């Protein structure tokens, strides 16, 4: 089987980095188990010496993030149900992809994210197209509508939600197959739930409470809006409540952040330590008593939850943060779920004061996570569903 893997924004052969790069690599590796994979990536420096993979193109030259003026946006709204109106092609990217497709027969064309598949004109090959939707564009627009600062932008994004729901449905039905990271969204016959899974498989011992500073940990890319907003809400509303009862508690924030205003605010709060990128992520988990995932918006599912479980650290999150996993992890059993700031603080305080509860939750979560969220399970889902239809 010949497979074309189109990856506009990530190097699919390199899984180091955050959730998006890791899932891209996992999907690529699953494809190599099905046949030979040719790669087109609009990221510079993608190379391969593997027999099961050929890099056809790797160059950051095409402008992917083209800005549009209001007039162009308005004109595209005149044909809203045209998929390429909502998710326009990038002329340079499309021409490059089409040139390579014309030179070779492909049984499958695989791409992550609907906007990136559309950007490269891949809907023209819908009968071969497999999209890992992951972040549903409808969710992205809903978050934008909720967080926009002006009424005009809020109305614009609300309008786009209504239109994009119809467009995504149209794209979905046309494609050969689609994968979703949220099981609720995999509602079509030609779709399946492909869960996020922990990329790293460290085997840490349970945390010990004797002579250790109580420490909370957040790991994530804080240059991503929902992450930064969630951390900011936690730092300002929840963490002070925790410190009232446990003054020595620390919060380590690990990950990139390009929003200096947030960093300036967080640096003034006692006990909060922004670590940025760290060389030894395993050590940060080793020293943490619990992992917090204060997420209230965004798309897809939170790999941060599963990674905490992989590291044998109890995770405290929101109802939104656990979506996509609620079928597997129950509140107060494998995970702690908070409905508001007060509950968030109370659950963390109880956890920091009770080593047995910490170990019980971490152990149950680790066992359940291993049973359902492994590389083997990931690869099998891809294989079964992609090969289910005739090539």
How are the strands of the biggest sheet laid out side by side? 3-2-1-4-5-6-7
What is the residue-averaged pLDDT? 89
Number of domains: 2
Please give the CATH class of the largest domain: Alpha Beta
How many whole angstroms does the radius of gyration measure?
22 Å
Total count of helical runs of at least 4 residues: 14
**Count of distinct strands:** 13
Alpha-carbon distance between the termini? 8 Å
- The CATH superfamily of the largest domain is identified as Glycogen Phosphorylase B
CATH topology of the largest domain: Rossmann fold
Instruction: Please give the CATH architecture of the largest domain.
Output: 3-Layer(aba) Sandwich
Structure description:
The protein is built from 14 helices and 13 strands. By secondary structure, the chain is α/β, with parallel strands linked by helices. The chain folds into two domains: 2-197 and 375-386, Glycogen Phosphorylase B (Rossmann fold, 3-Layer(aba) Sandwich); 215-372, 3-Layer(aba) Sandwich (Rossmann fold), CATH 3.40.50. It has a seven-stranded parallel β-sheet, with helices on both faces. α8 (225-245) crosses α12. It is globular, with a radius of gyration of 22 Å. The mean pLDDT is 89.
């Amino acid at each position: 089987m010949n497979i074309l893997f189109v990856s506009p924004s990530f190097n699919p052969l390199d899984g180091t980095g955050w959730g998006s790069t890791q899932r891209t690599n996992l999907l690529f590796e699953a494809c190599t188990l099905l046949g030979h994979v040719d790669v087109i990536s609009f990221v510079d420096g993608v190379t391969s010496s593997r027999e099961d993979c050929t890099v056809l193109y790797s160059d950051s030259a095409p402008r992917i993030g083209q800005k549009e003026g209001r007039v162009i946006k308005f004109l595209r709204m005149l044909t809203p149900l045209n998929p390429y109106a909502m998710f326009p092609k990038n002329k340079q990217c499309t021409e490059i992809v089409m040139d390579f497709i014309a030179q070779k027969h492909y049984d499958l064309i695989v791409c992550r994210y609907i906007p990136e598949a559309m950007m490269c004109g891949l809907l023209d090959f819908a009968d071969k197209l497999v999209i890992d939707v992951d972040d549903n564009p409808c969710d992205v627009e809903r978050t934008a509508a909720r967080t926009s600062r002006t009424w005009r932008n809020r109305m614009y994004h609300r309008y786009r939600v209504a239109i994009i729901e119809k467009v995504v449905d149209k794209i979905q039905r046309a494609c050969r197959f689609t994968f979703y990271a949220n099981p609720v969204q995999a509602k079509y016959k030609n779709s399946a739930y492909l869960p996020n899974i922990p990329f790293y498989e460290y085997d840490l011992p349970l945390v010990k409470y004797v002579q250790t500073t109580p420490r909370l940990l957040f790991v994530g890319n804080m240059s991503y809006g929902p992450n930064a907003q969630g951390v900011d809400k936690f730092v300002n509303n929840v963490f002070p409540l925790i410190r009232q009862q446990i003054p020595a508690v620390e919060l380590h924030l690990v990950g990139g952040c390009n929003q200096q205003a947030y960093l300036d605010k967080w640096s003034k709060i006692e006990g909060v330590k922004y670590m940025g990128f760290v060389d030894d992520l395993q050590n940060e988990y080793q020293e943490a008593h619990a992992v917090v995932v204060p997420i209230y918006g965004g798309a897809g599912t939170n790999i941060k939850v599963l990674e905490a479980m992989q590291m044998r650290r109890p995770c405290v999150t929101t109802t939104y943060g656990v979506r996509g996993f609620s079928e597997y992890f129950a509140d107060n059993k494998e995970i702690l779920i908070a409905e508001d700031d007060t509950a968030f603080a109370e659950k963390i305080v109880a956890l920091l004061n009770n080593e047995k509860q910490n170990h019980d939750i971490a152990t149950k979560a680790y066992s359940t996570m291993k049973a359902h969220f492994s590389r083997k399970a990931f690869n099998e889902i891809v294989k079964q569903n992609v090969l289910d239809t005739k090539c």
